[in-house]
Amino acid sequence: MIEISPTPETDQLEIRLSGHITQAEYEAALLPAVEAALAKHDRLRMLVILDARSSGLDMGAAWADTKMGLSHWRGFDRVAVVTESGWIRVATRAMAALFPCPVQLLSGSEVAAARVWVTGE
């Protein structure tokens, strides 16, 4: 499941993922939210929280995420990822080196700290 909490009138999106995310769910929920936010703001600050029930993305959703990231390469100002999943932490660390913006990786108990970091305060 994907839950999106936009912060009205700001450049921030908070995204909570749980369960196994499919390509259909990714394209129906997350892509439109990111596209709408980027239509209002040149760059976004995103907090992605993968809760304990999250098992990640299927291959189609992972490909959709890659395409979205590449098509909006300069559209992100900061990205924080909160997870306890070992493989997601490894993948995030590997991909963070390629991102054109700062990426912060935090544990599940650090959601409040992630929110502060994303806002830049």
Estimate the strand proportion: 25-35%
Helix-strand string: EEEHEEHEHEH
DSSP, total strands: 7
Give me the CATH architecture, please.
Answer: 2-Layer Sandwich
Characterize this entry briefly:
The protein has 121 residues and is an alpha/beta fold. The protein contains four helices and seven strands, in the order βββαββαβαβα. The protein has helices at 23-40, 59-71, 86-96, 111-119; strands at residues 2-6, 12-17, 20-21, 44-50, 56-57, 76-82, 103-106.
Structure overview:
The chain has a single domain (2-119), classed as STAS domain (Transcription Regulator spoIIAA, 2-Layer Sandwich). Strand 1 (2-6) and strand 2 (12-17) form a beta hairpin. Helix 1 (23-40) runs parallel beside helix 2. It has 121 residues and is an alpha/beta fold. Helix content is 42%, strand content 27%. The chain has 4 helices and 7 strands; from the N terminus they run βββαββαβαβα. A 5-stranded mixed β-sheet has the order 1-2-4-6-7, sandwiched between helices. A two-stranded parallel ribbon has the order 3-5.
